[in-house]
Write a structure and sequence with these properties.
With 436 residues, this protein is mainly alpha-helical. It contains 23 helices and no strands. 38% of the residues are buried. It holds the Pfam family PPR_3.
Length: 436
């Protein structure tokens, strides 16, 4: 299914194919281990089957003690910092008998969630192995995640080979982690192969797996293939989420071959309607992309029609929990100014203060530029001075915009004054300003 899509993007790179023949898989990936992971031989060794029995929690004589240990460990998982986590790990590692692998795995998971100690988790896993603890599928999946975050997808695959060799069943999390990181490092053909192999193994993709592949397709410009996979996803009974839809809609905006850039707003709108029919409320990113697309699509002669669509979408968003942010206000104000609709642009700018939103330098500069183009220099200068009062001092772009406005309307005296201010602040006039 998906391999047909992958054919268009293959560039002759060798795939990490994990076939149904386990012996073949082991030979291929274990060969990679010997070449690429000399520093982690103990971690990937095959002696786990000889691990001591204390790694299990099945002994009836120790069950009550394990329950007590589990309660203590669960409390310890809310660590203040990495030092607390390491202290807890060392305490657990020196217990007799050892706590079960599940408790260690929870601790490793808590450290991973701290977001920066991936190499530490790898080291702790090696210590667990040396103590005789056999990893389970969740421990090894955490290890794959850590190697991936360290951009060592090759070593992550060696852990996958270990999973298969131990007779464990990779989970959807295991596969999705690898697929995600293959996409991130640009090995998209391999990601597609792994996706197909996952399906062949009877591991059903979830919304996160599908969205990862769709995002990868969109990043390489295969928007049509991504839309096709969206349909396959729905046919398989897996409901897309807001991220899935937003990814495709944004890709349409960026891709010159996409829907929105070829005046096919109806199809993009259909995606939005589909989201609503599934009770999936578009988030701020989706709305921003759609409004930006509509505004940029409209030619001056057709501007009112397009802005009408954008503005209706904008007002619809205001009735949801995803309130418009500064990005969306700036998109609309900029589009209105460029089309000569300064009156509505000013109204929208004033609305920011009513809504409790603080304009940033970009929005101020946008409205100042619109005022200058209409020759409303006094009002432009007033807005420019208000920036400082509102805690949003003009930046280099703001100065260049208003100076060009004064020069364009032959108001050299005020332009010279602003140029002096600009230099005092250490800003530099750009080519467009000095050309006057």
């Amino acid at each position: 299914m998906v391999m047909m899509m992958a054919a268009a993007v293959r560039r002759g790179s060798e795939a990490f194919f994990i076939g149904s023949q386990i012996q073949q898989c082991q030979m291929k990936i274990m060969g990679m281990i010997l070449l690429l992971s000399p520093t982690t031989p103990s971690l990937l060794s095959s002696n786990h089957s000889n691990s001591i029995s204390s790694s299990t929690c099945t002994s009836s004589s120790s069950s009550s003690r394990n329950r007590r240990d589990k309660r203590k460990h669960d409390d310890a998982c809310s660590f203040r910092n990495i030092d607390d986590a390491l202290a807890s790990f060392n305490h657990m590692l020196h217990r007799k008998p050892l706590p079960c692998i599940i408790q260690f795995t929870k601790l490793l998971s808590a450290i991973v969630k701290m977001g920066q100690y991936y190499d530490t988790v790898i080291s702790l896993t090696k210590q667990m192995e040396l103590a005789g603890l056999s990893p389970n599928i969740y421990t090894l999946s955490i290890l794959i995640n850590c190697f991936s975050h360290l951009q060592r997808v090759d070593l992550a695959f060696s852990v996958l080979a270990k999973i298969i060799k131990l007779g464990l069943q990779p989970t959807i999390v295991t596969f999705t982690t690898l697929i995600n990181w293959l996409c991130k490092v640009g090995k998209f053909a391999q990601a597609m192969e792994l996706f197909d192999d996952m399906v062949a193994r009877g591991c059903r993709p979830d919304v996160y797996t599908y969205t990862t592949i769709i995002n990868g397709l969109c990043k390489i410009g295969e928007t049509a293939a991504a839309a096709g996979l969206l349909k396959k996803m729905e046919e398989a009974g897996c409901q897309p989420n807001v991220v899935t839809y937003s990814t495709i809609i944004d890709s349409h905006r960026k891709d010159r071959r996409g829907l929105c850039n070829f005046s096919q707003w109806k199809e993009a709108s259909a995606l939005l309607n589909e989201m609503r029919s599934l009770n999936i409320m578009p988030d701020i990113v989706t709305f921003n992309v759609l409004v930006d697309t509509i505004c940029k699509e409209g030619k001056v002669s057709e501007a009112q029609g397009y802005f009408g669509k954008a503005f209706r979408l904008f007002r619809a968003m205001q009735s949801t929990y995803s309130k418009p942010n500064l990005v969306m206000y700036n998109i609309l104000i900029d589009a209105m100014c460029k089309s000569g609709n300064l009156r509505d642009a000013r109204k929208l700018f004033s609305e920011l203060f009513v809504k409790g939103l603080q304009p940033n330098a970009q929005i101020y500069t946008t409205i100042i530029n619109g005022l200058c183009k209409e020759g409303l220099l006094d009002e432009a200068l007033e807005a420019f001075r208000n920036m400082e009062e509102d805690g949003c001092p003009p930046d280099e772009i703001s100065y260049n915009v208003i100076i060009r406005g004064f020069l364009h309307h032959k108001d050299e005296s005020r332009a010279v004054q602003l140029i002096g201010e600009m230099r005092d602040k250490g800003f530099i006039a750009d080519v467009g300003t000095t050309a006057w």
